[in-house]
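Side project, low priority. Logging it here so it doesn't get lost.
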Amino acid sequence: MKISAFTFIKNGQILGYPFLQSIQSVLPIVDEFVINVGESEDDTLSLIESISSSKIRIIKSKWNDSMKDRGYVYGQQKMIAQFNCTGDWAFYIEGDEIYHENDLNQIQSAMQNYLRDSNVEALVFDFYHFYGNANTYLDSPGWYRSEARVIKNSVRSYAPDGLFWVVLDQNKKGRYPRAKHIGVNCYHYGWVRSEEEMNLKSQKVQKYWGKDYVKVDYSQINSMIFKEFRGSHPKIIQSWLPKDIGIFNADSDYKLSSKEKKHQILLKIENIFGNDFSKKHYKLV
């Protein structure tokens, strides 16, 4: 069995991505790591080149800044990397996602167990979306709680906006991949970077969705979806994390948007009946 990991990154340094830690978190279990590095304004490329591993294969690209339709440029860049993977499995990792060292063997074993199972096309992870600091994560149907991050390289798939996969059958109609949930968490730290870095990111990437920049203020959020993280963070990210104590302090006077009010109602229903209304881009088998 051969495992490929892949990602794409641009301006990772100035936008506050822990991309080096992200790459290194899964290097022990992959046979190759394909990294599509977009033309950047910082040292992203040289920092990746400084990682001492023969498993890393770098592709250099230039983004199409005229593509401003629903983040499709992200799908383009993701697929450049994925189409260069040569393994049985393609393990997609975003630059702010980390995997715990204690879970690597379980991920590798799942790939081995389902390698010859034609009914399983992808593997699903649960997500910790950390917010504001390392002690707070979000639990709401408005934030995806699980997602497919590993797919068989023999499956005819593509990513329309970089966030998920669509599988094309013989009739060329798209569907979500058939997937197994393997009980492993992905640690997502994108909303832990500083507000300054998050705002710079927003300024630089909102155009790819045809949107105008709107200032990000971490305090403007519904604190009712906060949960306290009581586990251990992956060792490789611990020195990068802010040292705040306790749950993140949101604005107590924040007024919910209509969408957040809807999610709040759904969350109450979930708590009563055990439902999960969060979006899923896969079909469990």
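Brief comment: The chain is about 20% helix and 25% strand.
Revisit when time allows.
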